[in-house]
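Late entry, evening session. Most of the bench is empty. Finally got around to the prediction I had been postponing all week. Sequence below, unchanged from the version circulated by S.P.
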Amino acid sequence: FPMTSGVQLVDIDDNGTFKYILIKVMKEGESFLILRGYGWAEYHDDIYQEISARLEAEGFETECRGGGRIQHRAADKNLKVYGYSQDFGRADHAKAVELLKTKYPSYEMSWSNEGY
């Protein structure tokens, strides 16, 4: 992704179960997806508000492409992606796993549309 302009594709908490969202980031006709997931967020929109404000300040346009949850078990090198966002609907969990593999290539990963 030459267009990512220093934007990290994936940023999530090191451990635990937390909400995540996919964000479509756009600039000058190009676009790419990023994933953000944090335990501090009570709502998926909390993550979107913070990240979109930061990116828009750098001249990007953003669009939330849904959310869900991630269970990150660092000791087991395991990531599980599931659920959905009441605010934004269900993210494409398969795409989320693709992105996560760029940062955690040695992890075992699974996804499911079950759960909330």
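Two things to note before I forget:
The chain has a mean pLDDT of 94.
The chain is about 20% helix and 40% strand.
Will write this up properly tomorrow.
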